[in-house]
Structure formats: structure tokens, C-alpha cells
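Task card 7
Instruction: Convert sequence to C-alpha cells.
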Amino acid sequence: MADGVEQCIPVATPAGTYQVWTKRFGDSPTTKLLMLHGGPGATHEYFACLEQPLPAAGIEYHAYDQLGSGRSDRPSDPGLWEIDRFVDEVEQVREALGLGADDFFLLGHSWGGILAIEYALAHQDRLKGLLISNMMASCPAYNGYAREVLMPAMDQDALAEIKRLEADDRWDDPRYGELLQPHYEQHVLRMPSAQWPEPVQRSFADINKDIYVPMQGPSELGMRGNLENWDRTADLGRITVPTLVVGAAHDTMDPAHMEWMAGAVQRGRYLHCPDGSHLAMWDDQDRYVGGLVGFVRDVDAGHF
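Output:
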């Protein structure tokens, strides 16, 4: 696949075969990075800030919209939105792109981090390196951090109204988004939301709520969907491939937990973004890109 050329890949599922969208940037015989976006149900677009610096650093970068998201097919079968089915999808995409243990790096951000951990536990023999960005290894711990650290720092009247709207299933009420805006501007992307980069706004506006709400819950303020009890803290020691864990000081996720994760895998490194939030690739970009590139180069050179 030529640089910048899009490719749709057929993915077999229990509900039939669907097409998922990918696009390649750069060309490297040894370093091919597949990106797993968050949401669930967001799009590849919020990674746009990496499309130039990664190929410039010699990293072949593959953008990818998961099934149900972005430019990929959007089936309506709720039975498709299961972790194991997504893991199988990633494996089919890997195979179609010709990625393998001599060149395949996998980066998962947010929900994509859950998916990357699950993929590594199932198929790490296919991986050269793993990158877990802005995702804790336990949703119960994520909820504890939201409850004990983030919520007490919020305007308490606004928080009470948020909880009332959620109790009434009014998560799509414009007032709900308005109340969450200050939280998002502090912990998702640290700038006024009206100034969020266009690719971020586009990705968030296009989020598939038929996936996001059942899996994540109505907002980024903790996990209340069917991922609520997901926890792989006891299994991280099974991950043997070189692993970079990225955390940020102002994230929705606990940076101390993510630093712990880097020590829990067998060959881990922690990258801290002191000025970053959940989208640290935007609001602490130099550290994020520099740490990612440094990790990949060290793995390629056998220094890990």
C-alpha cells in the first residue's frame, strides 16, 4: 500500500463480513505502528497530529477506524461490541497489512489501550513492541480515581446536576454536555473546547454512541458501561514484549497507576507528560512524540 493510500480490509465477524478503513503514512521495513483509537466508537482522526512527525522519524504509521467507527462499516448489531471480537478484528487487520513480530508495534489510546492490552495477552508473539497510552489496567481503579480525586475537585452543584441527568438517562441533553465541559477542558484536552483542533472536534462529533454508551457509559467521568469491571492488573506480568506506558499529570486516568503498570509488565518503560491530559499527544506533544519515538528506536536497536 503506497504512502497516504487508503485501504479497506474485510473483517469476518459472527454477524457477517464487514469492511474496516486503514491508511498508511511513511514506509519502514522494521517499524510499523498500528494505532487503536479510543471511545469506544471514536475515530482515527484525533491522531492527526502524529501523521507527519512519526513518518519523519522513520516510523511507518497505520491509521485505522475500528468496526462501527469513522469510515469503517457501521453495523447495528450490539453483539459485535465485545472485547474478544475487537481483538479478533485487530488480528485480522494485522494479517491483512502484513505486520509481524519483526516490525509490528501496536499503540492503543484510552479504550484502545484496553484493546491493546487484550491483544498482547492473546497474541504477543506477533508483536515487536506495545504502547499503552492514557489507559489504566483496571476500570474499577479508574472509577476510584474519578470518585476520589477528580469529582471532589469539580463544582459540586454541577456534579450533582450531572448525576441527576445521568439517573434520568438524559446524557444526550445539551445541558449534560455543558456541565461536563469544564471537566473535559481540564482533563481531556487542556484548552477551551471551542479551540480544540479541528481533527479532535471532528472525531468527537462523529463518535458512535451506539458503541460508546453501552461500553463506556455516558461520559469520560468514570466507566459505567459494560467495561466497568474490566481489570487486567493481575495479568500484566504475562506481557513480555517491550512496553511503553504513557501517562499525563492532568489525565482522566491516574498517572501513578500508569507508572506502576510500566513496572508490572516484564520489560516496561513509563513516559510521563507533565503538561498533558487525556489527549497528551496534543497538549504535551513534544514529550509525547519524543518519548514514543525514543522507545521505538530503542526497541529497534535492541537496547530494551
